[in-house]
Design goal:
The complex is a heterodimer of chains A (439) and B (331). With 439 residues, chain A is an alpha/beta fold. Chain A is 42% helix and 16% strand. Chain B has a two-stranded antiparallel ribbon.
Chain lengths: 439, 331
């Protein structure tokens, strides 16, 4: 048996007391033995690889941050554990190519603020000596934290920020697994194109509605770009502050432009205002295609009831993906156990996958050197079926963006969100056009 | 009182700061020093209009934002960020004059309300204007060197912040001894009496406000060059304005060293404690900071430096009137 602590000072004292009647030589030999033993313990100890994670653990995004942290710790524990799932690197008792080294995630708080995220990245790199960084959810904090990683030459994996510009900065050390707003907007048009093949949907004019913050304006910009590229008419573009309390003028503007489809990016309170406005002013369109947020909030269907029927919204994740990977319900179950019964969602699933992707890269690198990890990340090619996501694969293009990313589209049918696109994970056919307002 | 002890103190801080800039390698410590100096400058900037002139500003972030946006605009348009220092200062001073002209001659809280309103307008304008980056803000491309005002190491940033802090402190020492400083103090103590001897209240306060805005703008330039990312929530939001005002109030309103003391409390608590305890996700740091603000407000309404000045006066046996003549409460 070895000493519990590989620190010889207390042990030495006992040794000296024992050794008093004997020669000092014996004491020295004893101490050496203890030292050697301690050394053996350290060598036998499984080495640990530290990954830094920056998340909004306090501040207005703290609740989201707590979920993301839980998902990342779950991924860490599954990588270090021995139970196998159809997911990369899970259940191999650590990283096999690094002597089954365990991974440990060291967390730092961004408070959702760009300057705090920057300081957190510096702290993790210079004081915790992390081999890679992961995070940070909000696009603005990802922007500053990834610049620090770039300065220090440390790989940065971003699983969850959707501002398109993040991967057009020419950074060498930045990798993003999640699709960005541009991809999600393109998904809307792929959906329309796919529908065109099966039905005569006759969509020409598109109204783009979005709140004027980072989320809404980014989504609206992407939609406008994709619409023009796909040859649709942008009938109108409406931008409004998310804190508004009435949207009559905005709804009128949409109605006056007589669109076939409304593409909308709103938070919950404003989404509800618009939906009521559309009903009051009988804005009948073939479809409302929404960018998650307010439209996937549990309060959306609860508040609107039957008026929510037929609304389409994009999502990054759905438990319906179980039809492609049976790990989805199992991971969801483990996550619920750790996060007071709340289900796995788009954010937590993406962060869970992010940890697996970086762990997989470190394992394939067979080294903790930043260059080797970066090289391995660039060679990442994980088939979509081995992820929890609706993606085609995880493979990074020259900008560090995962080029296999995709979203899904859900429709409210009988008071529930049902996956209707892409067709290989769809559980129900899309109802097109959505029902007209009953006066 | 002579300015000599203040100059010695400032000299000592500059020497310490330079030692840190060139001797310390730890990025986290240097980040702390930089942030401390930056907030001290912002606090002092706020102190000019709210402490010395006695008109509380709740919109100081927009002057900070002027500098930060000037910097981002210069860099993204291929101009040198050095140009942002005068450009940001001009924009900030102009904004201060426009806000202050109709309100600084009025009694009551019109000025404070105007600063909140203008700040909200400016924030919305930046958030919706394409050439100001809308809600996305700006990311400054990575560069290196004095021409680009960007450095891979933190030492030069600390030197720059130190220089700005020293300049602002020297200007404040000069203000305390200048005619304008005496006019402002007279106005704050009794505006009617001051006006009756011919002091132009609006003019004096506008000058103080414009200088105040200029200082905040310079801090904004430095912030943008340091963080390399700016957006409305991180530079223009009401929360930033309140932080700046808190620093001034906690440290001691209308005192030379108050903002520096306030910044020390703010940064050491809100930042060092956040890095140590914030990771737990329980917000202890914010609770501790909030509790200290409440304590100071309840027990020491004149702030840290106001309390110290008061204690010194008491010991010297001079008439103790609240925080003393150096720190009257604003009218």
């Amino acid at each position: 048996m070895t000493l519990p602590v590989p620190d010889e000072a207390p042990g030495m004292k006992e040794v000296r007391m024992l050794a008093r009647p004997f020669s000092a030589l014996l004491a020295a030999a004893f101490a050496l033995a203890a030292l050697g033993d301690g050394g053996a313990t350290r060598a036998a100890d499984v080495p640990e690889i530290v990954i830094g994670s920056i998340l909004p653990l306090t501040g207005t995004l703290a609740q989201t941050g707590a979920g993301l942290r839980t998902a990342q710790v779950l991924a860490q524990d599954l990588v270090n554990g021995h139970v196998s799932y159809p997911l990369p690197l899970v259940g191999k008792s650590g990283l096999p190519r690094l002597g089954h080294a365990r991974i440990r995630i060291e967390f730092a708080d961004s408070q959702g603020k760009p300057d705090q995220a920057r300081a957190a990245a510096e702290q993790l790199i210079t004081q915790q000596h992390v081999v890679a960084l992961i995070g940070t959810y909000a696009s603005s904090t990802t922007a500053t934290a990834s610049q620090v990683a770039e300065r220090y030459g440390i790989p940065f994996l971003n699983p969850d920020s959707s501002a398109p510009g993040l991967t057009s900065r020419g950074l060498k050390w930045f990798f993003r697994t999640t699709p960005h707003d541009g991809t999600f907007a393109e998904n809307f048009f792929q959906f329309l194109a796919d529908l065109k093949k099966t039905k005569n949907i006759g969509v020409k004019r598109i109204a783009i509605v979005g709140e004027d913050g980072l989320f809404g304006s980014g989504a609206s910009d992407a939609e406008e770009g994709s619409a023009k590229k796909a040859g649709y008419d942008v009938a109108t573009r409406v931008s409004y502050p998310a804190t508004t309390t009435e949207v009559n003028a905005e709804v009128q503007k949409v109605k006056a432009s007589s669109p076939d489809v409304i593409m909308q990016a709103s938070y919950l309170p404003d989404a509800l205002l618009f939906m009521r406005g559309y009903k009051q002013q009988s804005v009948d369109v073939k479809a409302i295609l929404a960018q998650d947020a307010g439209f996937i909030d549990p309060g959306f269907i609860r508040t609107l009831g039957a008026d929510a029927e037929g609304v389409f919204t994009r999502e990054v994740f759905s438990l319906d993906i179980k039809h492609r990977n049976q790990a989805v319900p199992l991971i969801d179950q483990l996550f619920r156990e750790r996060f007071s019964g709340k289900p796995l969602d788009g954010n937590t699933a993406r962060d869970f996958m992010g940890v697996l992707v970086i762990a997989d890269a470190i394992d394939r690198a067979g080294s903790t050197k930043p260059d080797a990890i970066r090289g391995a990340l660039m060679k990442t090619n994980i088939p979509g079926k081995l992820t929890l996501m609706p993606w085609n694969r995880i493979h990074f293009d020259a900008t560090g963006q995962n080029d296999g990313g995709a979203g899904i589209i859900e429709q409210v049918q009988d008071g529930k969100y049902e996956t209707v696109w892409p067709f290989d994970v769809a559980v129900r056919p899309a109802i097109w056009p959505m029902p007209a307002w009953k006066r | 009182m002579t300015a000599r002890p203040h100059l010695y103190a400032l000299g000592a801080i500059v020497v310490l700061g330079l030692l840190a800039a060139f001797g310390v390698r730890d990025a986290v410590v240097l980040d702390l020093v930089f942030t401390l100096l930056l907030y001290a400058v912002l606090g002092q900037s706020w102190n000019w209009i709210s402490g010395y002139a006695g008109n509380i500003s709740f919109g100081h972030a927009i002057f900070f934002g002027c500098g930060a946006y000037a910097s981002a605009l210069c860099v993204t348009h291929g101009l040198t960020p050095w140009l942002a220092i005068p450009a940001g200062a001009l924009a900030a001073a102009a904004l201060a004059l426009v806000t202050g002209f109709p309100t600084l001659g009025l009694r009551g809280h019109y000025f404070s309300i105007a600063t909140i309103a203008v700040a909200a307008l400016v924030e919305t304008f930046a958030r919706t204007t394409p050439w100001l980056g809308k809600a996305n803000g700006f990311e400054l491309p990575i560069a290196s060197g004095w021409a680009a005002l960007q450095f891979p190491q933190k030492g030069p940033y600390v030197v720059l912040a130190l220089a700005l802090f020293a300049a602002v402190q020297l200007a404040t020492i000069a203000l305390e001894r200048s005619r304008l400083g005496y006019y402002l103090r007279a106005l704050r103590a009794n505006h009617a009496a001051a006006a009756s001897v011919g002091i132009d209240e609006r003019r004096c306060k506008l000058i103080a406000f414009a200088w105040s805005a200029t200082m905040a703008s310079a801090a904004g330039v430095l912030y943008a060059q340091y963080t390399l990312f700016i957006d409305p929530p991180s530079t223009l939001a009401l929360a930033i304005s309140i932080d700046i005002a808190l620093i001034g109030v906690v440290g001691g309103i209308g005192t030379l060293w108050g903002p520096a003391a306030g910044a020390l409390v703010y940064v050491v608590l809100a930042k060092a404690v956040a890095l140590r305890f914030g990771g737990a996700g329980k917000g202890y740091d914010l609770v501790i900071y909030g509790a200290i603000i409440c304590l100071i407000a309840a027990l020491r309404p004149y702030g840290i430096v106001g309390t110290i000045v008061d204690a010194i006066r008491r010991r010297r046996g001079s008439i103790a009137v609240g925080p003393g003549a150096a720190a009257e409460t604003p009218a």
